[in-house]
Amino acid sequence: MIATTVHQELxxxxxxxxxxxxxxxxxxxxHIGGPAEAWVEPQGLEELRALLAxxxxxxMPVTPIGAGANLLVRDGGIPxxxxxxxxxxxxxxxxxxxxxxxxxxxxxxxxxxAAREAGLGGCEFLAGIPGKVGGxxxxxxxxxxxxxGFRAMSDVVARVTVVRRDGTVAATPAAEIGFEYRRxxxxxxxxxEAVLQLAxxxxxxxxxxxxxxxxxxxxxQDLTAPSxxxxxxxxxxxxxxxxxxxxxxGLKGMRVGDAIISPxxxxxxxxxxxxxxxxxxxxxxxxxxxxxxxxxxxxxxxxQVMPQ
Length: 308
Ligand SMILES: Cc1cc2nc3c(=O)[nH]c(=O)nc-3n(C[C@H](O)[C@H](O)[C@H](O)COP(=O)(O)OP(=O)(O)OC[C@H]3O[C@@H](n4cnc5c(N)ncnc54)[C@H](O)[C@@H]3O)c2cc1C
Known about the structure:
The protein has 308 residues and is of the alpha+beta class. It contains 7 helices and 21 strands. The chain has 3 domains: 81 residues, Uridine Diphospho-n-acetylenolpyruvylglucosamine Reductase, domain 2, CATH 3.30.43; 116 residues, Uridine Diphospho-n-acetylenolpyruvylglucosamine Reductase, domain 3 (2-Layer Sandwich); 83 residues, Uridine Diphospho-n-acetylenolpyruvylglucosamine Reductase, domain 1 (Alpha-Beta Complex), CATH 3.90.78. Helix 1 runs antiparallel to helix 2. The longest helix has 19 residues. The protein is globular and about 55 Å long. Flavin-adenine dinucleotide (FAD) binds next to strand 3, helix 4, strand 9, strand 15 and strand 17.
């Protein structure tokens, strides 16, 4: 529980904008999640740094959130500060030559649109991935590139500006970030901005690629039902994709409470309405058990369970 003095400090620092016990189901694409102890939307870098200082001195955990499109928030909620950078100060977008600089709160759809308008290709793969730039860097978001290959943020990010927990700001070249499959080793740093290195490409060609990618996604995924996208990482090593393994284990349509394995895409779990995080976690365990039994493969989570 937040001490009264810290409570007061947060109220003063944010000019009363802090929200206590904010339901996280309002901020996740799954529409699931208990309350954030304190939800803050800093209006600029200085406010963010001041909030981090309060959290550090009160020894409160800090959780950054983007669009909440890859999250499973537990029913008990998230202790400490939950920081959303979805504010104008972190939604700046600038195209300069062949680089595109975007704040952490910029939506990926806006990145794709701005790049297309500027005749810059390379980030079309982000089309249809719900999320913000900060979350996409952290998750090293990626997918098929529409050309028979795969592409992820690590292929286009040149530099990331982060704020560390001690409030220092650092511009880190991509090579030092430690990108892996669906992960960037940020060590708790908060992404505030990313610079993407793109290449000239005719807007019509970009448009065609985006259209093809969107058509593929619409045909294969549940894009409108509440979900967090793919629940499990693909196991790699030449093994079939997680969705295929789940499908082959006969688990499409399996249901716990209001959580169901999507009949369209076996790596999606969909919230039929009133699913709890407990329902989803029970379904996840059942899938992991059955896939291990059937295929001898342990499916690791791609979705971020909060708190861990
Ligand atoms: C229908 C659907 C389809 C999807 N398709 C794809 C796909 O094709 N490819 C793919 O890769 N993903 C996909 N996803 C998952 C999701 O869109 C991506 O992981 C996306 O990058 C999440 O971004 P976000 O802003 O919502 O991050 P969140 O879900 O809010 O957060 C994800 C993680 O990033 C951290 N984080 C958020 N912001 C910051 C920040 N500023 N600094 C540091 N850490 C931060 C969070 O703490 C959390 O650990 C899909 C999801 C859905 C619902």
